[in-house]
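Morning!

This is the sequence you dropped in the shared folder:
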Amino acid sequence: MNDTFKALADPTRRQIINLLREGDLTAGEIAEHFDISKPSISHHLNILKQADIIIDQRQGQFISYSLNTTVFQDLIAWLLRFKSFAGKDE
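The structure's back. Tokens below.
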């Protein structure tokens, strides 16, 4: 879970996640939305992959990226448990 929070801490990575909410994209399509180098985009994508926030799939000569919704379901479940625990002190 710690890798997930570290990955989400960066505004560029959060913006990539927002783009992928609309559907799968290649690295080039993602890079079109940023004014940073393609190697920097690849670095951000790798961090998101290591945190299991996104998954990649080769389609011919391109790699398509999509959200790993299971991680978000786990994160929401964890937050709800935390909220339940915090509410016991009230």
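Headline: The CA atoms of residues 26 and 59 lie 10 Å apart.

More detail when I'm at my desk.
O.
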